[in-house]
Design brief:
Number of strands: 6
Structural class: alpha+beta
Order of helices and strands: EEEHEHHEEH
Strand order of the largest sheet: 4-3-5-6
Low-confidence stretches: none
Distance between the termini: 20 Å
Number of domains: 1
Number of helices: 4
Radius of gyration: 14 Å
CATH superfamily: Glutaredoxin
Shape: globular
Length: 161
């Protein structure tokens, strides 16, 4: 049975990163976009990352341009936008697809491990969130409109497990 540790992805600065590097951490994996109504969630995601980081939480942001072309920029522009506007310090990755035949293998895994509403495996929109336990297993999927602060209790449970 695979876990998120079986995957790797390019970081926003083009380096290959094995997700196994996060072994033993609780992860919150989020597909992001810079020009979306949910973009202000970057602030809440950064707050979670800072509040729970010392306890073992890592937020991982995966920019995606599949929903309304709301992430049109290059990786350098995305990184600058996130840092300047939201003070993002959590790891960001290169732009990926989260749905369809070109979907990143990580997202194919996440979507099948934690289907959405009515069993749908597709990611509905930007800022869909997946909570991963310390062993690399998907615990839960959160809808795009779920505020990061509303995930805190689930994160605490995962950190305490």
């Amino acid at each position: 049975m695979p876990t998120v540790y079986d995957f790797s992805a390019k970081t926003i600065d083009g380096k290959n990163r094995k997700l196994a590097d996060y072994r033993g951490k609780v992860l919150l994996v989020v597909n992001t976009a810079s020009h979306c109504g949910f973009t202000p969630q970057y602030k809440g995601l950064e707050e979670l990352h800072r509040k729970y980081g010392k306890q073992g939480l890592v937020v991982l942001g995966f920019p995606c341009n599949q929903f309304g072309a709301q992430e049109p920029g290059a990786e350098s522009e995305i990184a600058e936008f996130c840092e300047m506007n939201y003070g993002v310090t959590f790891p960001l990755f290169a732009k990926i697809d989260v749905n369809g035949e070109n979907a990143h293998p990580l997202y194919k895994y996440l979507a099948s491990a934690a289907p959405g509403l009515l069993g749908s495996e597709s990611v509905k929109w930007n800022f869909t969130k997946f909570l991963i336990d310390k062993k690399g297993n998907v615990l839960k999927r959160f809808a795009p409109n779920t505020a990061p602060a509303d995930i805190a209790r689930d994160i605490e449970r995962a950190l305490d497990a």
